[in-house]
Automatic annotation (TrEMBL):
<feature type="transmembrane region" description="Helical">
    <location>
        <begin position="16"/>
        <end position="36"/>
    </location>
</feature>
<keyword id="KW-0812">Transmembrane</keyword>
<keyword id="KW-0472">Membrane</keyword>
<comment type="similarity">
    <text>Belongs to the NRAMP (TC 2.A.55) family.</text>
</comment>
<dbReference type="GO" id="GO:0034755">
    <property type="term" value="P:iron ion transmembrane transport"/>
</dbReference>
<feature type="transmembrane region" description="Helical">
    <location>
        <begin position="42"/>
        <end position="63"/>
    </location>
</feature>
<dbReference type="InterPro" id="IPR001046">
    <property type="entry name" value="NRAMP_fam"/>
</dbReference>
<keyword id="KW-1133">Transmembrane helix</keyword>
<dbReference type="GO" id="GO:0015086">
    <property type="term" value="F:cadmium ion transmembrane transporter activity"/>
</dbReference>
<feature type="transmembrane region" description="Helical">
    <location>
        <begin position="84"/>
        <end position="107"/>
    </location>
</feature>
<dbReference type="Pfam" id="PF01566">
    <property type="entry name" value="Nramp"/>
</dbReference>
<dbReference type="GO" id="GO:0005886">
    <property type="term" value="C:plasma membrane"/>
</dbReference>
<protein>
    <submittedName>
        <fullName>NRAMP family</fullName>
    </submittedName>
</protein>
<dbReference type="GO" id="GO:0005384">
    <property type="term" value="F:manganese ion transmembrane transporter activity"/>
</dbReference>
<feature type="transmembrane region" description="Helical">
    <location>
        <begin position="113"/>
        <end position="139"/>
    </location>
</feature>
Length: 141
C-alpha cells in the first residue's frame, strides 16, 4: 500500500502506526462490548479471513506450479497435487461454514417471512457470485 498511496514512511513508523491502529480498535471493542464483544470480534475477523483466503491461495498455488514463472524452482507434480487437495479441503470447509452460518442466521432470525426469503435470495446469489469468482481464478490461464 505504501507504493500505491505514494506514502514515504520509515518502516518502524509504518509498523508502529498500523499496530497501534489495530490495537486501539480492538481495545475500543473490548471496552464497549466486554469479553463477549472481543469474542465476537475474533469470530467476525476469522469469518472475513476465511472468506478472503481463496483469493490469495489460488493465485499462489497457480504461480508456484507454473514452470515458465518459477523455472527450476517450480513445485513437483506431487507437491502440486497435494497442495491442490489441501486447498480443496480448506475451501470446502470454509464454504460449508459460510453457507451453514447463513442458513442458521435465516432460520433463527426474527424477521418476517418475506424478509427472510428476500435475504435468502440475495445471500445465496452472493454465495453463487463468490463461488463463480473462485472458479474464475482456478480456471483462468
Amino acid at each position: 500500500m505504501q507504493g500505491f498511496l505514494d506514502l514515504k514512511l520509515k518502516p518502524w513508523l509504518r509498523n508502529l502506526l498500523t499496530r497501534c491502529l489495530a490495537i486501539i480498535l480492538s481495545l475500543i471493542v473490548s471496552l464497549i462490548g466486554g469479553s463477549a464483544g472481543a469474542g465476537k470480534l475474533i469470530i467476525i475477523a476469522s469469518m472475513i479471513l476465511s472468506f478472503e483466503l481463496p483469493f490469495a491461495l489460488v493465485p499462489l498455488l497457480k504461480f508456484t506450479s507454473c514452470k515458465t514463472k518459477m523455472g527450476s524452482h517450480v513445485n513437483s507434480i506431487w507437491i502440486t497435487a497435494l497442495t491442490w487437495i489441501i486447498r480443496l479441503l480448506i475451501m470446502g470447509i470454509n464454504i460449508y461454514y459460510i453457507v451453514t452460518s447463513f442458513i442458521k442466521l435465516l432460520l433463527h432470525s426474527h424477521m418476517k417471512l418475506v424478509a427472510v426469503i428476500f435475504c435468502g435470495i440475495l445471500g445465496f446469489a452472493g454465495i453463487a457470485i463468490y463461488l463463480a469468482s473462485i472458479a474464475y481464478l482456478v480456471f483462468r490461464k
